[in-house]
Amino acid sequence: MEQQFMKTAFFDFDGVVVDTEPIYDIYWNEAGERYQTGIPNFASHIKGTTLPYILDKYFSDRSEEFKEMVTRESMDFEQKMPFPPVPGAMEFIHLLKGKGVKVGLVTSSDNAKLERAFRLLKLDNLFDTVVSADRITKGKPDPMCYQLAASNLHVSPADCLVFEDSFAGIQAGTNAGMRVIGLSTTNSEESLKDKVYQVIPDFQNITFEEYQKW
């Protein structure tokens, strides 16, 4: 009967399943200059957030045409970008699935990007639920996305474990009442350790026994 006590696992996408954050850093820092935001290292300010959030927070005073251009350029970029997996991530998700753990993907990415990523990485039918930016009205750090994922799978937030790399995502998982494991793929272990239950560099050598302890 041990299966009842296995926590449900929710994974963020960028920086957790795929190591895309360095790719995004280059794109958004360059875009931040091109769009004349006046914010140095613009990418660091928007990690883990949705495109509507970025438009609303940083470009609310710009024209609709400008916002449409930002959206179009971002979507064009995401239709060409590579998706290098975080070391051990795919193997770990398959390990959990093999043990009967329910797994979900909870991401600020939109469906168009995810469809391409799922096709390239062969992720179809792997996750028991997928919560994308298209399914929520309030993005991370709001807990709505994780609350929806738990509701989809009929599990209590207290019985869920979240894997996150960004401060916005960690806050979302924590605010949803879930235990968060932080990946130091985007931010340093030092900056994460007081915000999460445990920090891991990636999923290499993470055993099922460790998962059960979490």
Automatic annotation (TrEMBL):
NCBIfam families per the UniProt record, alphabetical: HAD-SF-IA-v1, HAD-SF-IA-v3
Record protein name field: HAD hydrolase, family IA
PANTHER family: FRUCTOSE-1-PHOSPHATE PHOSPHATASE (PTHR43481), GLYCEROL-1-PHOSPHATE PHOSPHOHYDROLASE 1-RELATED (PTHR43481:SF4)
Molecular function GO labels: sugar-phosphatase activity
Statement: the UniProt record of this protein carries the keyword Kinase: no
Keywords attached to this entry: Hydrolase
Highest taxon of source: Bacteria
